[in-house]
Write a structure and sequence with these properties.
It is a single chain. About 45% of the residues lie in helices and about 5% in strands. By secondary structure, it is mainly alpha-helical. The chain has a domain at about 465-540. A hairpin with a 2-residue loop joins strand 9 (about 455) and strand 10. Helix 1 packs across helix 2 and helix 16 (about 375-385) packs across helix 17. About 40% of the residues are buried.
Length: about 550
């Protein structure tokens, strides 16, 4: 089964792949379309003469761990070697607060200081402006990120520990949560869960601040207690279909999680603090029985019990999500189980799991290369970063007018950062590309290739085709340039017919030996644009 049979209907094309590893109880099963096929596991990938560390593998690694690697970065990874490159991808960095300097790390103002309608409207406008700036800031961070897995992992956790800005409302709290996700992205998952449980954005989003028992008044809210188990740690059922928890466990967890509230800022009652606080008088101090353990449990106790009583389920649930995000949509449970053992045995540290995965033969198996669908962020900002596109309204500093173009395009494709559709997050996978979104995606890329996008009469998403071509080693060799650009743009090498089509677009009825990148009579810019247009329309460009 060739899992890159993009948009194939019915039975897959016949290929030379080996039989698939069964993912169930060992019984026979019909192979679903696009099921991955590989006999490799987490054994280390060791570069050698028969399986070298080359451009294809380096590009695969960088495309999966960041958004829009450049050809220069991919070639450097090849030159640095496998071991050095994998070490380098775990390098962390501190994103500057570009575009959000005015409120990043500041206590949020939660209400206007006057009943004057004008003041109220100004307060609302300022909040909306800050929310837009927060979105731009993260796009800016992705577009200017060094080679690092940090932002990809932060995005992964943003879609796991979901909060929606439209519900939380205050960008200061969402920025604080984003920083929390970044800090813990490769850290200890058990502590991560405890920290997220007390995070202000999460307490607002899943009603934790409404969850209390004070005196005779009980207002126990089960929202977070349910999602903590269903979505954040262990899932509804284990791999054998057995329930991981009961409704009573949800109710008892909610009681234990009670007592958290916001704080008043030192700036006064119009503001709120960035951190939450535990108020003993609002906590349900009674005995609770949770996952079979009885005691006067608090929030940290609930997390500890989940990891002690459902450790296997937690490890498999999280590792399966990591597999889907970094390898393929259909998990190989043999590989996931091995990842889960590393996770548990490593005391819930995330970095060893990811390091093992990125160093494994399985990760570099040919069937796993170029088999994930580009999400809208990878599609739009990946193109911007990878091709050196400039004049992107959202990424311009010093101006906010008409500056939400990339955000609006991503929204039309189903992805708005800081606002997943619901607590389950974006489903991802093949849902990113549909009959409604594919034409929109292709129209954008075609317009970028043509240089035809404008805003208020000014060109945006500007691509310098000559500068782009000069990034490659020998832009004056038209055959080599065609091969190099195709290798960079596409997730896997083009077929013979695709290569011929792409070269024909670049040749454009010219003569190969007359090609010179700096000869205007050869119309190099126009011909490179035609090449890009042809490449962008290939189905495999939708994958990475």
């Amino acid at each position: 089964m060739n899992r890159r049979n993009f948009f194939t209907l019915g039975a897959p094309r016949v290929g030379g792949d080996s039989a698939p590893r069964l993912m169930g109880d060992g019984g026979t099963q019909n192979t679903p379309p696009f099921l991955r096929v590989s006999s490799t596991g987490l054994e280390p990938y060791v570069p050698g003469s028969s399986d070298p560390w080359d451009y294809a593998k380096a590009a695969h690694l960088l495309r999966r761990i960041m958004v829009g690697p450049t050809d220069k970065e991919i070639r450097k990874a090849v030159a640095d070697g496998f071991d050095t490159t994998v070490k380098n991808v775990f390098t962390t960095f501190t994103p500057p607060p570009t575009l959000i300097e005015s409120f990043a790390g500041q206590d949020p103002q939660i209400r206007p200081g006057s009943a004057d309608p004008t003041v109220i409207q100004d307060f609302s406008n300022a909040n909306q402006q800050q929310r837009a700036q927060l979105h731009k800031w993260w796009l800016y961070t992705f577009a200017n990120s060094p080679v690092s897995i940090q932002e990809r992992m932060t995005l992964f956790w943003h879609n796991h520990f979901v909060s929606e800005l439209n519900t939380v409302n205050f960008p200061e709290w969402m920025y604080g949560q984003n920083q929390l996700l970044r800090k813990n992205a490769l850290g200890n998952f058990k502590q991560f869960v405890k920290d997220v449980t007390k995070d202000m954005a999460m307490l607002v989003y899943l009603d934790g601040i409404k969850n209390f028992k004070q005196g005779n008044k009980s207002s126990i809210n089960e929202n977070y207690g349910r999602e903590l188990q269903e979505l954040f740690t262990m899932g509804v059922v284990d791999w054998n279909g057995n329930p991981n928890y009961t409704q009573n466990d949800v109710s008892e967890a909610a009681r234990a999680l009670s007592g958290y509230s916001g704080t008043t800022s030192s700036k006064g009652t119009l503001y709120a603090g960035l951190q939450s606080q535990f108020i003993q008088a609002r906590w349900d101090a009674g005995s609770k029985t949770f996952l079979g353990k009885t005691g006067a449990w608090k929030a940290d106790d609930v997390v500890d019990i989940i990891f002690s009583e459902r450790g296997d389920q937690v490890a498999k649930f999280i590792c399966e999500k990591l597999y889907r995000a970094f390898v393929y949509d259909i998990p190989d449970r043999t590989v996931v189980a091995a990842m889960a053992e590393t996770f548990k045995n490593g005391n819930w540290e995330l970095k060893p799991v990811m390091d093992q995965l990125l160093r494994s033969r399985h990760f570099y198996d040919p069937t796993n290369i170029g088999a994930l669908d580009r999400n809208p962020l990878d599609y739009i900002i990946g193109m911007v970063r990878g091709l050196g596109v400039t004049s992107v309204p959202d990424l311009q500093t010093g101006t906010t007018r008409n500056g939400n173009d990339a955000r609006n395009r991503m929204d039309s494709l189903g992805m708005t950062l800081f606002d997943p559709p619901n607590v389950k997050g974006w489903p991802g996978g093949r849902t990113w590309v549909s009959t409604s979104t594919l034409p929109v995606r292709q129209k954008f890329s075609i317009d970028v290739a043509a240089g035809s996008l404008k805003q208020a009469g000014t060109g945006i998403y500007l691509l310098d085709p000559i500068a782009f071509a000069k990034n490659f080693p020998d832009p004056n060799d038209i055959h080599q340039l065609s091969d190099d650009m195709a290798r960079f743009l596409l997730n896997v090498p083009p077929s013979a017919s695709e290569s011929a089509m792409l070269f024909a677009a670049l040749l454009d009825s010219g003569v190969d030996y007359e090609w010179k990148i700096d000869d205007p009579q050869q119309k190099p810019a126009e011909r490179i644009r035609k090449f890009l247009n042809a490449a962008f329309q290939l189905a495999k460009y939708q994958l990475y």
